[in-house]
Known about the structure:
By secondary structure, the chain is an alpha+beta fold. The protein has one domain: Gcn5-related N-acetyltransferase (GNAT) (Aminopeptidase, 3-Layer(aba) Sandwich). The chain has helices at 30-37, 40-43, 53-63, 123-138, 153-161, 190-197; strands at residues 9-10, 15-16, 21-24, 68-69, 75-82, 91-102, 107-114, 143-148, 165-176, 179-189. It has an 8-stranded mixed sheet with strand order 2-3-5-6-7-8-10-9, with helices on both faces. The protein has a two-stranded antiparallel sheet with strand order 1-4. It is globular, with a radius of gyration of 17 Å. The protein binds coenzyme A (COA). The site of coenzyme A (COA) has 20 residues, from strand 7, helix 4 and helix 5.
Amino acid sequence: MEPRAFTPVTIDAPIRTERLILRPMTLDDVDDIHAYQSLDEVCRYLLFEPRSRETVAEKVAFYSTATTLEKDGDFLQLALELPASADAPARVIGDSYFSVKSVANLGGEIGWTMHPDFTGRGYAAEAASAVLDFAFTTLGLHRVAADLDPRNDASIALCRRLGMREEAHFVEDLAFRGEWADTGIYAILDREWAARVR
Length: 198
Ligand SMILES: CC(C)(COP(=O)(O)OP(=O)(O)OC[C@H]1O[C@@H](n2cnc3c(N)ncnc32)[C@H](O)[C@@H]1OP(=O)(O)O)[C@@H](O)C(=O)NCCC(=O)NCCS
């Protein structure tokens, strides 16, 4: 099949899904993001330890500037905003990571983190679907992968819910918190995604 073309993109408007708004983080989000990035249960399989508010503020300041995808390594760390309702003000309930791994090979990487109060409701899948759609339709990528800890059952279930296939299981390739850990690779291709959403 003919390779597709990569289209550089700058995020200048939120991505809206049925229940969420995906948008670049702002400093106003720091408390909401700290509320989950400071939790042991959230960070259990993440590559960072629970974060202080000060660290979250530094990260958010940096992430808020990451809005353009045009070369290898460019990334987005989008806030998942649950809009205001009659019962509650708008708040950030998680974030979606996306990076361009290789413009030459049209490859990307996806990741996700939710506040535990908002898991089990399909929000992460809803956001990830929008990001995959963006990756394949807007950016023109061919393949999107997720790297995860194979002990992370919730993340594996999410990959499978999105139609991602287990492609690799690397044994003890990661020095993780004082021990060796494995890495699982899940992925989906543009044509597979298109067949799912048709
Ligand atoms: C990984 C993580 C994002 C998954 O979140 P999640 O809420 O379980 O994922 P989903 O959005 O796919 O939700 C699926 C659950 O919602 C339920 N659900 C409810 N309404 C739904 C809907 N409208 N659509 C889909 N699922 C729905 C599903 O039945 C499923 O429930 P189950 O877990 O009891 O089977 C979350 O566990 C997390 O943030 N973990 C900590 C950070 C982390 O490890 N990140 C990954 C690093 S690789």
